[in-house]
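Help! Submission page says 'invalid entity' but I think these are all valid:
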Amino acid sequence: MERRNALKTLAGAVGGLIALPGWASGWTAESVRLATPLLPADQVETLAAVVDTIIPATDTPGAKDLNVQQFIQKVVADCYDKPTQDMLSNGLVLTNDLAQKTFGKPFNAGDATQRVTLLKQLEQSTDPAQAAFIKLVKPLTIRGYLNSEYVMTNLTHYEFIPGHYNGCVPVKK
Amino acid sequence: MANFNIDAQALNTYDAIVVGSGISGGWSAKELTAKGLRTLVLERGRDVRHITDYPTTNMQPWEFEHRGQLTKDVKDANPIISKCYAFYEGTEQFFVKDAEHPYVQEKPFDWIRGYQVGGKSLMWARQTQRWSDFDFTGPARDGFAVDWPIRYADLAPWYSYVEKFAGITGNKDGLDTLPDGEFLTPHEWNCVETHFQKQIASKYKDRHVIMGRAAHLTSPKQIHYDQGRAQCQHRTICERGCPFGGYFSSNSSTIPWAAKTGKMTLRPNSVVHSIIYDEKKGRATGVRVIDANTKQMTEYYARLIFVNAAALNTNLILLNSISTRFPNGLGNDSGTLGKYVAFHNYRAGISGEYDGNLDMTTDGRRPNSPYIPRFRNVYKQETNFLRGYAAGFQAGRSSDTDQSGMGADLKQSLLNPKLGGWHVGSHMMGETIPKESNYVALDSSLKDPYGIPQLKIAIAYDDNDEKMIKDYQEQMTEMFQAAGFTNIRLRDDKRNPGLDIHEMGGVRMGKDPKTSMLNKWNQLHAVKNVFVTDGASMTSTSTQNPSLTYMAFSARSVDYAVKAMKKGLV
């Protein structure tokens, strides 16, 4: 019964950057609507701006277009403990405060450069609350984005069936 | 009214009763019905019908609310089952929740169960190696447990019989430690696995790396199409139930096959309380069943009783089957019932990297991996521990995506993943030694929700296991180094017994009724019409996965039982 554990070991060995098998991930905007929202409306707006800053719309939709903010709310509400839920909420407040200090506007009113700079600042922050907030939100944003129907269907071409396994194929240059 | 009971008794009487519908129960049911016996199959859990009752099998990754992750409520409520690798958002419905069937952990034991039609055959990892004569002669040679009453030759034709029907993929490797079977096309190797295989073959005479043998239809035959099954689609989400029947399960194979005979009555939600022993007739006459919904007790009667409740629950049922003749459990003249339970040691693993073959990669998914058969203490005792271990092995290449950026840069790197290097990994599967001190018993006061005594489990690792872990790590490190693997890391996850899901014994087979429960036909020495062909019957545990052996024992035992019944012997 251990094959999957071996896979997990492999995943661990590369620092968690492995592409997880399809079953391990996935959501749709429809499936993640919360009965009772975790965050107040203004914080959801900030969260949407944060995920849109982490993965913006370019010639393809960004994280906000794919409702990643909703996925994050849902996962944090259902799968994480109260301190983490509070940390998400407090982090959004912190982010707005920092935005006011740095560029004199709420976070979502900043331009792309201002917002990216601010989130990078959070990543390097020595303040535990700031660092923990971005450490939670960024991987969840990446997960929600990469496992969205849009990205899996149109950009990464996930194939459910027929599956196959070719053991030795040349690396595409 | 006088006739009512007689009618009820007639209505509840069958030729045979099978307790349990998992891998071994499914086979018992198939074989009994094929031989024309009206067979009642009792399953304590709910019905799970092939395809229609696999709610997540066709869900796309993005359709899971929490991308597969378990919610905090589920994890908090289920600390035991949450440890199981196959338990996630897509499979929650197939595992027994911790509160559903409480038990007493006299020593830490993670009991992993699937209560539904099909049992754990729905979620198993599908490795199906034959056991070899080294496994069946081991106890006699090493002096642990008791001698098996059979040898490999007794089981070989039955292995062939079940393999052809179940559909087993594998390669004919010609090894005496792992006899060849009736194989469908083997799965493909990747470059680094082939590299490892060649390096090991050139450096060791007695160590082999082979492709795993697994219950997958890689190249289905007519008999599989006749079951309504189709080729494996390499989805690697087997534990959700496979709508193609691409892997073997009771649900896709043996149970519907038995149903087709018109001889099977399947009764889900039927918790077996005990087996009824008739002192005058000197045999078992039926079973007592508690309806899981109504909690009403009903008796069912039959000439033959096959107990296939899965190892520990089979022990529980026999222990709870008390009569004047058998005050310590049905057929328990030897006093060995519940004792000499053993399992497989999965604690240790190893990982590494390989910087060759960088021009090649893999494409797709494979529901199987290479396997290293036991090489320790095979021909002679050569270490300071008894028995040995097999090992899984696999290599893979993954995308190492740079996630350090932010904004458009990050998006760019996420959508253009870079191919990382090769990663290799292995885990051990060690044979643990059956000991009297590893036992299960009934708790004297605690009851389960049906009023049945809770099972008390006292099973632990010993010094032999610790030495074996050390040896696996040393030998595997040497083998990884020999293959040029680098960045080698060892792990011992110190997991509890039970999480291996290979618990066996307690109703062991043996030649001597004084020291064993079952004879060479899996028949209770003392109660000739009761047969046990699941993991409970195993005298020792081998280093191989046990499921295929349960299948072979079930088919063989039914064949004997029906012949014996016709001769009036049972």
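Support: the input was valid. A stray whitespace character was the problem, and the output above is from the cleaned input. The longest strand of chain B covers residues 418-431.
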